[in-house]
Structure formats: structure tokens, C-alpha cells
Q: What sequence folds into this?
């Protein structure tokens, strides 16, 4: 293993958060960081930890088939309410989205606390303002959202067929979801 690859490996292991290629380059200096990452990812295939890229940021994670071993030592105390879960899903599928749009999709008002919980978790951020009367704030998911849920990008979110197969849509939810998809395709 060359010195650059070793330095990239050390930077990733020492970091407490996933790193972008630019972040890694700031630590290790000049060189082909992407090639070093590819070499490391290949080297760790089949090991207890693997190198993964999520939302343009790289980090080591426990191999999925071994995650159950560590589950008892790492408990997520973060339990989202139904309102927070629905809000997070709407933001993930429709981002960037305003509070009024979230409320229109959910059919009920959301409390400010719901968005605060998602922002404190690091899964949602403000993403500017819509060029419309009142200039409402827009919300979007963060790279931490992708990392937490094991997604490389938002394109990896489950589609309607995946949700049906998992039994997560009842007939009414399915009809509403289908209407939303049709409305989006008519607008786009």
C-alpha cells in the first residue's frame, strides 16, 4: 500500500464524521485521493468493516452482515413520532419543500418542534427560500440522513413497488401516494 493510500485510510479512521474527497485531500495533501479510496474500498471488501460512500462522503462502517453483533452496545434512543416520520419522508421524497407544502401533503399542520427534532438529529436542514410571496423557508435532507439510513443518494429511497412489497402501504395510503406521483409528473 502506498503512502497516500495509507494516509487516506488514517484520515478516515481518525475522523468522527464521514469525509468528502475535498476534506480528505485537505488532510493528506496532493495526490489521487479517488484512486486511493477505490483501492481501500476494494481492500476492505469481505472484512468486518468496509469503506462506503454515502452522499459524496466516505467512511468506514461495520459490514452489514455483522451489524447485529454491535446492535446491543449501540442503541439509538432517537424515536421519531409519527408526525416526525411522515415529515421526514415528505422532505426526503419532495425536497426542497416548504412547510406549507409539507402540511398540504400531510393534510394537517406540523408543529415547529417536529422540524426542530429532525434538524437536531442532523437529518434535515434549511435549503434556502422559495422565490414566492412570503419567501418561505425550504427544507431538504442532509448527508447525515443518507448515512444514517444507509443510502448512497436519494435515488436509493424505496419506490411505491418496494413499499407495497414490504406491506407498508394500505390501500388508502397507496391511492394518495399514487396521486402525489401523478401530480409531480404533471408539474414536471
A:
Amino acid at each position: 500500500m502506498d503512502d497516500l493510500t495509507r494516509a487516506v485510510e488514517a484520515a478516515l479512521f481518525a475522523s468522527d464524521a464521514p469525509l468528502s474527497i475535498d476534506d480528505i485531500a485537505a488532510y493528506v495533501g496532493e495526490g489521487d485521493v479517488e484512486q486511493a479510496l477505490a483501492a481501500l474500498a476494494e481492500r476492505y471488501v469481505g472484512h468486518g468493516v468496509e469503506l462506503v460512500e454515502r452522499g459524496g462522503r466516505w467512511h468506514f462502517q461495520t459490514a452489514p452482515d455483522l451489524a447485529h453483533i454491535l446492535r446491543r452496545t449501540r442503541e439509538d434512543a432517537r424515536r421519531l413520532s409519527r408526525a416526525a416520520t411522515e415529515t421526514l419522508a415528505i422532505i426526503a421524497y419532495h425536497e426542497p419543500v416548504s412547510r406549507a407544502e409539507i402540511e398540504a401533503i400531510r393534510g394537517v399542520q406540523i408543529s415547529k418542534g417536529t422540524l426542530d427534532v429532525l434538524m437536531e438529529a442532523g437529518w434535515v436542514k434549511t435549503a434556502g427560500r422559495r422565490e414566492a410571496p412570503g419567501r418561505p423557508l425550504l427544507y431538504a435532507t442532509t448527508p447525515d440522513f443518507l448515512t444514517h439510513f444507509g443510502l448512497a443518494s436519494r435515488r436509493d429511497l424505496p419506490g411505491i413497488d418496494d413499499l407495497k412489497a414490504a406491506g407498508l402501504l394500505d390501500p388508502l395510503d397507496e391511492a394518495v401516494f399514487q396521486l402525489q406521483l401523478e401530480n409531480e409528473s404533471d408539474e414536471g
User: Anything to note?
Assistant: The beta strands are 19-20, 49-54, 57-62, 97-98, 124-129, 137-141. Residues 78-153 form a domain with the Arc Repressor Mutant, subunit A fold (CATH 1.10.10.10). The mean pLDDT is 85. The two ends are 48 Å apart (CA to CA).
